[in-house]
Specification:
mainly alpha; 3 domains; two-stranded antiparallel ribbon; 8 helices; 48% helix
């Protein structure tokens, strides 16, 4: 906006107020110049990893064995477990490498047959995706994919290879072991 521009009352701003430099949706009051408190790099990294992988808090809780409230505390600024962060970053790297079935990093279709409904369900379970997430990421219409698979059809070879690579990657990066400070032992969360 140009310097000194006056805007009408919209979204909680008083009529004739000049918007502040850091004004953002959701700010309280009419000042609009409150700078948001910066989140720690670790919290931003966790959020970025979760969005890249396609997981929510419940899914990461199931996959890691760590309470989702603890993960939210890490996002808000409490120092995160470095093993957990390394695990998420490894999975994020996998999903960045194989971002879609059309990624250039998917070379050679391999010698495996295309996935049927059972293979797709298995891969989604291992990756932690719903059918909806799979369809969105694969660029297919969910209902059409479901109908094709329910009639005994197969995924196209390129999508099958992509899903296969992601499934294998998730198997290669199991959840990390955590050190229990109170007992001094290592265990899976």
């Amino acid at each position: 906006m140009s310097e000194g521009m006056v805007i009408p009352r919209i979204c909680g701003q008083a009529r004739g107020e000049v918007p502040g430099e850091f004004a953002r949706y959701g700010d309280r009051g009419f000042g609009g110049t409150r700078a948001s408190t910066p989140r720690p790099v670790c919290g931003r990294e966790i959020q970025l990893c979760l969005s890249t992988i396609g997981w929510g808090f419940l899914q990461v809780e199931r996959r890691s064995g760590i309470d989702r409230h603890q993960i939210r505390r890490w996002i808000r600024g409490t120092p995160a477990d470095p093993e957990f962060l390394a695990w998420l970053q490894a999975l994020r790297g996998l999903h960045q490498r194989y971002v879609s079935p059309f990624a250039l990093t998917i070379t050679g279709l391999g010698n495996r047959p295309s996935l049927c409904a059972h293979g797709v369900a298995r891969a989604c379970l291992v990756i932690g995706w719903s059918e909806r997430t799979l369809a969105e990421r694969a660029g297919e219409q969910r209902t059409a994919m479901r109908r094709r698979l329910s009639k005994g059809g197969l995924l196209c070879p390129r999508t099958s290879r992509w899903l296969d690579l992601l499934e294998s990657g998730h198997r290669d990066y199991p959840r990390p072991e955590y050190h229990d400070v109170s007992t001094g032992s290592y265990h899976h969360a």
